[in-house]
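User: Predict the structure for this protein chain, please.
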Amino acid sequence: MFSHVFMGVSDFERALAFYQPVLACLGLTQRFVDAERPWAGWHSAAGQRPLFVISAPHDGQPHAAGNGQMVAFAAASRPLVDQAHATALAQGGRCEGPPGLRPQYHAHYYGAYVRDPEGNKIAFACHEPAAE
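Assistant: Here is the predicted structure, written as structure tokens:
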């Protein structure tokens, strides 16, 4: 469905230090990083798209986190949601909703929500039933 998702950041080095361990925890592969530009991108093991990119805004204006905007990363299991959430908090993220079931979305939705150090809202979501 998506070619890429672009997330604006003001402090590239701080954002990179946050996203590298968080996305590695989810098994995403860093495709590129260029601090001179500055930008970095990751993709899933399944292929080079969709691509998740962090970068300074192209228009040169300061980054501003969007109200009501969120990027949700798929997690293969509920323990992986827990691990990604804990990793994000350890890297300076701010909790926006601890890991847990969200039956208002669907019976098996297990998710967690954080704000990255730039104020962008991200989520980790597993749509599978609990492992037995």
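The helical segments are 12-25, 78-90.
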